[in-house]
Amino acid sequence: MSESATARMVSLAVTIDGMTVGGAIELELVQCGHFSADRFRVVFATGAVPGGAGYFAGLGSGVVSVGVGIGGGFLAGIGAGGGALLVGQIDNVAVDFGRGQAVVSGRDLSARLIDAEVTESFANQTASQIASQFAADAGLAAAVTATSTPVGQYYELAHTRTALALHSRHMTRWDLLAGLALTEQFALSVTGTTLNFAPVSDAVQTVLHYGQDFISLVVDRAVGLGTPKVTVASWNPKSKHAVSSSVGSSGGVTLVRPNLTQGEAAQLASAHQAELAAQAVLLRGSMPGDLSLMPGSVFVLAGTGTGFDTSYRIRTIERHVDVIGGFVQRFEALKVI
């Protein structure tokens, strides 16, 4: 089945700094998942915009909002409508005079945190307080789950990171939040104008059927990552002795970390093994575009009649919207362990 045969008829609605801009003919959106900025690229026909190429030549780092309308009777059961697919910051504008096109590209609004250095110390604040403060400073709403531990306590002698490294003045606010999210086992992302800092959810959001929902589907299984061996080695200055912990049976990865207790070494080994095992099964698929699946979404694959029929978490999505060719998306997903 070809992608062109199943692409969904769409329209694009774009605003830049709150003003509607016509002439959008194509959108490419790469949604990279947690801890990374989504990247976008919008192609405009300059002749459809008042001011033409001159309008785009004068653009600065404004805020772009892109909505997509799905409908026009192209697919049964799909009514006319739309949804906000992205809100982002302009990083680059390219004008192709020969083709009469302008390309506006950039990142989602996590860019406001990625571009901001950390110059303060936050040892007495909790991770959620820092996330809420950073969101407010960046003009973002905050969907933040409250935490209770002051971040200074994360980096005492028996822990794996140091306050000095975490609060380096060259680190960005996004880097700091990503480190705190990993410590709390949270997910970090920006959707639209909201900063999300909350536990990862394993709730299944949908069931996708092979032979019905996919244009193409490939599942790769790395045999050696089924039960990978992970060894954590450390030296604990409190007890004055070496610490080591191993889990798994195949392959071999050794992590050397300072100042761990035996329990912390065992916990780190198990956590790292789980991270490796989660990459043992990689699903790559393409399907008609929709607005429901996002990086971090969990779905159940059904209909292959194999052991691959199980739950997966989407890692990345690449969406391509063309007002002539339609709307398709490609994604990668990892098996939920």
From TrEMBL:
It comes from the Bacteria. This is Phage late control D family protein. The lineage of its organism: Bacteria, Pseudomonadati, Pseudomonadota, Alphaproteobacteria, Acetobacterales.
